[in-house]
Specification:
Rossmann fold; globular; alpha/beta; Arc Repressor Mutant, subunit A; binds S-adenosylmethionine; two-stranded antiparallel sheet; 7-stranded mixed β-sheet
Length: 336
């Protein structure tokens, strides 16, 4: 067999395996199978509780889950493996939303790529469920990587007033006020349903966290009062000139010497030692976003650096997060 054919075969087999994983994880969440098999159970018990379910399809789900080592079968009883337990454990940390995005929306959008490239159809409209729910929820999955960096910065710079633009469900604002008793935060969120969830999540911190359901460009506040403005996973919502306008808006709100923090996945990340080839999914995310009206995809590192320079920021620092899943750019507004 020639080498090209062999490599094609390898890619096709791994595609089938990965597609299988996607459908298993997504269906497992939808049907609560991950929770169901936390304790050892046999298939018959499960079917007795769900008499309307199709036994043949459940059998296939279990067979696939076993082949992919997500459940273990011992003496006729199934139980989650370590990976299966992780799938269950990280459900509410963005994983369920991320897999729902892949299963329901990525495939459907990419299927229209030939027509999109030929411009036979206009760029797609981002689905409401994506805008209202999934994007902000899936973003939570970066918390594990982002939080240690943010906490370190906050400690070092002694921030007291933080503005989180496009705060999503305000997970990081909440962590900041929990960790730093003198810190006050304001979260801006343009999507009303996401803002409502953020307000609910931060209710115990009323008085220290304020959520405003507003577009950042309509936000009115005293100038130069924030020590730090965060733009986490936000920049890709804005196109060329808007990105610069956004940074200028933020500059006006920052104290002289205050910091901007831009968290974003990047296109064109140079390969380095990686356990996972994370540049592949990131570029795919950029590709997916670009299929949609109003989205320009993820920026290149040099685009973010140019943007910061054009907006007048100094002391730019680029921090790659583990596995290069994202990069955090911090920069300072000059003192005078
Ligand atoms: C991908 S989420 C990121 C949420 C959070 N920052 C995080 O990193 O987990 C981006 C959020 O920004 C919000 N957003 C987009 N454009 C905005 C704008 N012009 N003003 C305020 N919020 C905006 C979106 O509704 C979305 O919830």
């Amino acid at each position: 067999m020639d080498i090209g054919m062999l490599s094609l075969l390898g890619k096709t087999i791994s595609l089938m395996e990965n597609l299988g994983f996607l459908w298993l994880v997504h269906t497992g969440y939808e049907l609560n199978l991950w929770e169901g098999f936390l304790k050892e159970r046999n298939k018959e018990d499960f079917l007795a509780e769900n008499p309307d379910w199709d036994p043949l399809l459940l059998d296939h789900w279990l067979e696939q889950a076993r082949i992919q080592e997500l459940v273990v079968l011992t003496k006729g009883k199934y139980k989650l493996s370590k990976t299966g337990k992780a799938i269950h454990g990280y459900r509410n940390y963005g994983l369920e939303a991320m897999y729902k995005e892949f299963a329901l929306y990525w495939g459907a959008s990419f299927a229209q790529l030939p027509e999109l490239i030929r411009r036979q159809i206009p760029r797609l409209k981002m689905d409401n469920e994506m805008e209202n729910e999934l994007i902000s929820r899936a973003s939570k999955s970066s918390e594990f990587f982002v939080w240690p960096v943010l906490r370190g910065k906050c400690e070092k710079e002694d921030w007291h007033h933080v503005l989180d633009v496009g705060c999503g469900e305000a997970v990081l604002l909440r962590r900041l006020v929990e960790e730093f008793p003198n810190l006050h935060g304001v979260g801006l969120e343009v999507n009303q349903s996401v803002a409502n969830r953020a307000a609910m999540e931060t209710e115990p911190f009323q008085g220290r966290i304020r959520i405003e359901a507003t577009n950042v460009f309509d936000f009115k506040d005293a100038l130069e009062i924030y020590d730090c403005c965060l733009l986490n996973n936000l920049i890709y919502y804005f196109t060329g000139q808007q990105r610069l306008d956004l940074l200028k808006t933020v500059t006006d709100l920052l104290k002289p010497g205050g910091k901007i923090g831009i968290l974003t996945a990047l296109r064109g990340v140079s390969p380095a030692f990686q356990i996972f080839k994370t540049h592949i999914p990131q570029n795919l995310m950029s590709f997916f976003l670009s299929c949609h009206d109003g989205f320009e995809g993820l920026p290149l590192e040099k685009e973010v650096l140019n943007l910061l320079e054009q907006a007048g920021f100094t002391e730019v620092e680029v921090i790659p997060l583990p596995f290069k899943v994202s990069h955090y750019f911090f920069a300072r507004k000059p003192l005078a």
